[in-house]
Write a structure and sequence with these properties.
Elements lengths: L6 E9 L4 H16 L4 E9 L11 E2 H9 L3 H17 L11 E2 L3 H12 L3 H14 L7 H10 L4 H8 L5 H13 L7 E4 L3 E4 L4 H13 L4
Parallel strand pairs: 1-2
Antiparallel strand pairs: 1-5, 3-4, 5-6
């Protein structure tokens, strides 16, 4: 048995809960970390990024939103959905395009994630939010939905609902968003390792594993 101590890496996963490639990237990253068990230990933090900060509480039809924002055609939209379904399935994550027909403002979800981090349940809440939106098509801008999802993640639903009724952690979330924007992060997922190395996009498991192994082998500065 090897007595080598695993290398501990700080990983900041900058993402949005309405970003499909963030769901792909997170599941691929976690698979890579599972394969590196014994070599690498991750101190994983989820950092906020909003794709649609200007959306109202009712959200917007997903195809209309992508068409207006990126010029996506109906054919491209369908192809992208099929690609996501396939990538998700390969990672054990279910995208259900028939249910996910709208996109929503995610600011309150990020406030809840900030709170969950203080409770030691951030990773559980992140996964629960991704499932709620991409698998179940739920409105993750709704306080009722967010409180229910918080409960699924092992958090207190009443405390979550009370938090959401205020503006608590709004300043902290906006400060974190500015921090990463000032560092040049304008697309997600962006994975920052040890405050120094950047991996962008929903990379394959093998790419994450190779990159993390290389970083872990770097001499301590």
């Amino acid at each position: 048995m090897s007595s080598t101590t695993p290398t501990r890496l700080k990983i900041d996963f900058v993402s949005d809960v309405v970003c499909p490639w963030c769901a792909v990237g997170l599941n691929a990253l976690e698979r890579a970390l599972a394969g590196l068990q014994g070599e690498v230990e991750a101190d994983l933090h989820f950092q906020p990024f909003e794709l649609n900060p200007g959306l109202g509480p009712e959200g917007e039809d997903l195809f209309e939103h992508l068409s207006r924002k990126y010029g996506v055609s109906a054919e491209q939209f369908k192809a992208n959905e099929q690609a996501l379904v396939a990538r998700g399935a390969a990672l054990g994550f279910t995208f259900d395009p028939a249910r996910r027909t709208r996109t929503y403002n995610s600011f309150d979800a990020h406030r809840l994630l900030h709170w969950a981090g203080l409770q030691g349940r951030q990773r559980e809440l992140k996964h629960a939010l991704l499932r709620a939106y991409f698998t179940d098509g739920r409105d993750i801008g709704s306080h009722d939905v967010l409180a229910d999802v918080a409960a699924q993640a092992g958090l207190d639903a009443a405390a979550a609902r009370e938090l959401l009724s205020t503006d608590r952690y709004a300043d902290e979330v906006r400060a974190d968003e500015r921090l990463y924007q000032d560092q040049g992060i304008h697309s997600v997922p962006s994975i920052i390792v040890n405050d120094r190395y950047l991996i962008q996009g929903g990379q394959p498991v093998e790419v994450f594993a190779q990159t993390l192994r290389q970083i872990a082998a770097e001499p301590a500065s």
